Amino acid sequence: MSEHTGKVIVITGGASGIGKETALQLSAQGATIVVADFNEEGAKQVATEIEATGGTAGAYKVDVSKGDEIKALIDWTVEKYGTFNGIFNNAGIGLVKPFLEMDPESYHKVIDVDQHSVYYGMYYGAKKMVELNVRGTIVNTASIYGSVAAVGSFNYNAAKAAVVMMSKSGALELAEHGIRVLGVAPGFIETPILGNDKAMKDALATQHMRGELIQPEKVASVVTFLFSDAANAMNGTTVAVDDGFLS
Ligand code: NAI
C-alpha cells in the first residue's frame, strides 16, 4: 500500500504547473485526486491522464475567488468519493504593475484569487474534516514573494505574505482537531505563470543558486511529502523550494 492510499485530496490550480505535477505525484502514491481549476478542459485532461495510469481522479470547474464555489467543490468531493482528507490551496495568478498604477481593480483581483481563495479552502475544508472526523492536511501555496518585496508586485506580495501567516494561524487553531496546515514557498518555477519572455526568465534563473529555473515536479515532491504522515511533526511552517533564493 502506498503512502497516500485511501486519501481524497482536492488540488486547486490542478490543471497546470505545480498543481498538475502534485496531482500526478499524489495519485501515483495512491491518493484520489479532485483536479479543481477555472480551466475545465485542462482539469479534465489531468484527470484523464491520472485515470489512464490506473489512478482515480475527477475534474471540477471552480473559481477559487468565490467562497460558495469552494464550498460546493468540497461538498461535491465528499458526495462523489465518500470522504475528504486534504486540500492543496494552490491556484494563483500574477498581475504586475507599478504601484502608482495599482488601481483597486488590479489590487483586489490578485487578493481575491491568491489570498481569499486560501481562506475559503481552509475554512470550508477544515469544517468538512471536523464534521467527518478526519485528521487531514491543508497545504497552501505562498511564494518567496511572501517574504521579499518585488517591483510591480504590491498585490502579489500582500497576498502571499498573508498566505504565510494564514498557514501559521490556521495550524494553531486546527491542531486540536488533528488537522495540520502547511505552506510551500516556491522560487521561480518553469510554469505558464512566468509568461514567454525568455530574457526575463533567464534573469530570474540567475537568482537561484544553480542559475536555473526550478521544475514544477520539485515543488510537487515537497508538497506530496507535506501531505504524508512522515511530515506529521511539521505544522504551521512554510517550506521554501527556492534553490537558495531566500538564503
Ligand atoms: P500555472 O499558471 O501553471 O497554474 C495556475 C493554475 O491556477 C492554472 O491552471 C489556472 O487556470 C488556475 N487558476 C487561476 N485562477 C484561478 C481561479 N480564479 N480559479 C481556479 N483556478 C484558477 O502557475 P503555477 O506556477 O503552477 O502556480 C501555482 C501557484 O504557485 C500559484 O499560487 C502561484 O502564485 C504560485 N507560485 C508560482 C511561482 C512560479 O514561479 N511559477 C513562484 C511562486 C509561487
Write the layout of secondary structure elements.
Blueprint: E1 8-12, H1 17-28, E2 32-37, H2 40-52, E3 57-61, H3 67-81, E4 86-89, H4 104-132, E5 137-141, H5 154-174, E6 180-186, H6 198-205, H7 216-226, E7 238-241
The structure holds 1,4-dihydronicotinamide adenine dinucleotide.
The site of 1,4-dihydronicotinamide adenine dinucleotide (NAI) has 31 residues, from helix 1 and helix 4.
Descriptive account of the structure:
The longest helix has 29 residues, at 104-132. β4 (86-89), α4 (104-132) and β5 (137-141) form a beta-alpha-beta unit. The model has no long low-confidence stretch (mean pLDDT 98). The protein has helices at residues 17-28, 40-52, 67-81, 104-132, 154-174, 198-205, 216-226; strands at 8-12, 32-37, 57-61, 86-89, 137-141, 180-186, 238-241. The chain is an alpha/beta fold and 247 residues long. The protein has a seven-stranded parallel beta sheet with strand order 3-2-1-4-5-6-7, sandwiched between helices. Bound molecules: 1,4-dihydronicotinamide adenine dinucleotide (NAI). 1,4-dihydronicotinamide adenine dinucleotide binds next to α1 and α4. It comes from Paenibacillus cucumis (ex Kampfer et al. 2016). InterPro entries: NAD(P)-bd_dom_sf, Sc_DH/Rdtase_CS, SDR, SDR_fam.
